[in-house]
Specification:
single chain
């Protein structure tokens, strides 16, 4: 007795392909936004703030001269954003690898139709929640 039909498996596979495609897209968008943001921050710590590099951000803020607090905040934010870019790239790579595995399972003869139907189901669900 077949519990899960081949049609159901194809639909689920297509739904997962569409979801992973959007996931990879969102990681790409985040990476681009973080890279744009990072470009607005200093690339190196000024000499007068070097001692705060790597220090707990709250501790650094408490010890920093208030005349330099904005500059300190920018340097700290640059470090955080740089880290976020790295983690987004790692997560994107995992999502892209799974997407490749999913795509490899989709039979060529039903791929276009199944993906088109999955996109329609996703859009219907999104419109329903609006």
């Amino acid at each position: 007795m077949e519990i899960i039909s081949n049609q159901k498996r194809i639909e689920d596979l297509a739904d997962n392909i569409v979801a992973r495609t959007y996931e990879v897209y969102h990681y790409d968008t985040n990476i681009q936004n973080y890279e744009t943001l990072l470009a607005s921050y200093p690339t190196e710590w000024p000499e007068h703030l070097e001692r705060f590099k790597g220090m707990d951000p709250h501790q650094a803020a408490a010890e920093c001269d208030s005349n330099f607090i904005d500059e300190l905040a920018d340097c700290q934010q640059a470090e955080r954003v740089s880290y976020l870019i790295k983690t987004e790239k790692v997560e994107r790579a995992k999502a892209a690898a799974i997407l490749d595995v999913l795509k490899a399972q989709m039979p060529d003869d039903v791929e276009e139709e199944a993906i088109t139907a999955a996109i329609a189901r996703r859009e219907a669900l999104l419109n329903q929640n609006m």
